[in-house]
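Agenda item 2: S-adenosylmethionine complex prediction
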Amino acid sequence: MEAKIAKPFVKWVGGKTQLLEEVRKSLPVDLHLRNNVTYVEPFVGGGAVLFWILQAYPNISRAVINDINPELICTYRVIKHNVYELITILGILQAEYIALDAENRKKYFLARRVEFNSKGVSEVRIAALFIFLNRTCFNGLYRVNSKGEFNVPHGRYAKPKICDTYNLLAVSKLLQRVEILCGDFAVTEMYAGEDVIFYLDPPYKPLSETSSFTSYSKEGFDDVEQMRLRDFCARISQLKSQFIASNSDPIEEKTGESFFEQIYCQFKIKRVSATRLINANPNNRGLVSEIMISNVL
Ligand SMILES: C[S@@+](CC[C@H](N)C(=O)[O-])C[C@H]1O[C@@H](n2cnc3c(N)ncnc32)[C@H](O)[C@@H]1O
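Presented output:
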């Protein structure tokens, strides 16, 4: 697939860069010919699909994104409205960090993490710290404790790219046609209707009780939430929206049946392969089957 200019500005667990071709195949075949299409992404995360689709389909006139993570959404808004000040702060953070030895880099990281978790930090500073921590923490993870404090340890990258000016400017330009919301996915239902396409990429259902789990937010996303999302899909479908949803493909231990095939039996389901971290060890990656559910004919 052709490389696009604007790409995710953070590493994000569950990022969809490797599944873009599968998403493309699931979209309506006439999408590039349609005008007045609105694209809605209720679990935007790092935005791999958002940035790709807005560049691949310039005819999409309007987009709406949402995520429950307030610091992530603050960062999207700052990139949209205040990208030059953000780039200045990131440039300073990068220069200060790169100049240090390993021990002092760790101290610098921990001090920025305390600052990020403290109250009263300006929005542009939150955005800069969010990107800084993402680029310098262990594996680019985002995990919070029960108080909602970011608690990922320091990572060891020789020369992390903290300030990617070219990409931030490209992302800022794209975001000018995007409305940015922060909350539960249900807030996006008000956009459902004809000529509206939803791409839903919720936190995946863990494959087993013991699989490594990364909590994106202190609220979590259990089976009750997965069913609430299924009901949401049924409602937006009735309102004539088209949707594509991704998820893992767990098999129920007791019945041997696929959880998502059961709960989404009225929709189209297709299996795709993805390389995922299947173990706490980052070197242990494997090919897993994932599921794509849609009502696109
Ligand atoms: C699998 S990630 C999305 C990854 C994204 N497609 C990408 O390429 O980076 C799931 C996202 O859902 C968000 N999330 C979790 N619970 C949510 C909720 N109830 N409503 C909206 N967003 C939620 C998380 O903060 C996380 O960013």
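Discussion summary: The chain has two domains: 17-68+183-294, 75-166.
Owner for follow-up: CH.
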